[in-house]
Design a protein that fits this description.
single chain, about 240 residues, alpha/beta, about 15% strand, binds SN-glycerol-3-phosphate, binds calcium ion, PLC-like_Pdiesterase_TIM-brl, GP-PDE domain-containing protein, GP_PDE_dom, phosphoric diester hydrolase activity
């Protein structure tokens, strides 16, 4: 069965990467959630997509330049709608504490891009183990050096490569760096690609899949999962006969 993975939580209906977005995905029947992790100046692991806080909070500046106390002062809900104003940024630990009491799977994206967070991989794996979530977690990243680091040091943790386009036979490449999944930009997932991945036993999970026609197409093609901003809609479409 194709897994429905809520992209930054139920981010089409709730402010992305916040506890209400994650809780809504659970209520809607999603199989798992995806979130983005970065590190503050004082080494706390926080859930936020952009390298800067500007788009999704009432603050300005780089995530890496805030302490945890400082970034917790910001409102991460008001930008989305008045109803959610006053929401605080979640830490990875807060999310793990909640999710470990559910049956949800968790895809943690290591946001090690323009800003490289030293020690991000170790910190994330330490917390995942502390909450005994190893069996339900996939770590992914556009930064494949991060994934190599995870695989070398923690070979029991599942990893998947994130990529936008242009990788030739990515199933071979992914395997060569110890990864076991292809998290690709939706337009990459054409029939030839999906067939190649399937023949080579490599699970595919495209992002971000919100349209009904795409959801049906990836289900029919046997994708392992999809990332969607609208998990309630995707579950309904996936489960229709
Ligand atoms: O993990 C899938 C997707 O989240 C990757 O892109 O930019 O939404 O983090 P982005
Ligand atoms: Ca992401």
């Amino acid at each position: 069965m194709m897994k429905i993975l809520a992209h930054r939580g139920s981010s089409g209906t709730h402010p992305e990467n916040t506890m209400p977005a994650f809780e809504e995905a659970y209520r809607a029947g999603a199989d798992g959630i995806e979130l983005d992790v970065q590190m503050t100046k004082d080494g706390a692991l926080v859930i936020v997509h952009d390298a800067k806080v500007d788009r999704t909070s009432n603050g300005t500046g780089w995530v890496k330049d805030f302490t945890l106390d400082e970034i917790k002062e910001l409102d991460f809900g008001g930008w989305f709608s008045e109803e959610f104003s006053g929401l605080r940024i979640p830490t990875l630990e807060e999310v793990l504490d909640w999710i470990s009491g559910t049956s949800l799977e968790l895809n943690i994206e290591l946001k090690n891009g323009a800003v490289r967070h030293a020690g991000l991989e170790d910190g994330v794996v330490r917390l995942v183990r502390q909450y005994r979530m190893e069996e339900r977690v996939i770590l992914s990243s556009f930064n494949h050096y991060s994934l190599v680091d995870v695989h070398r040091n923690y070979s029991d943790v599942e990893t998947a490569i994130l990529f936008m386009e242009g990788l030739y036979e990515p199933w071979h490449y992914a395997r060569s760096i110890g990864a076991n999944g292809l998290h690709c930009y939706l337009p990459v997932a054409v029939p030839e690609f999906l067939q190649g991945a399937q023949q080579n036993g490599m699970p595919v999970r495209p992002f971000t899949v919100n349209k009904a026609a795409h959801i049906r197409r990836f289900k029919d093609a046997g994708c392992a999962g999809i990332f969607t901003d609208f998990p309630e809609r995707a579950v309904k479409i996936r489960d229709e006969s």
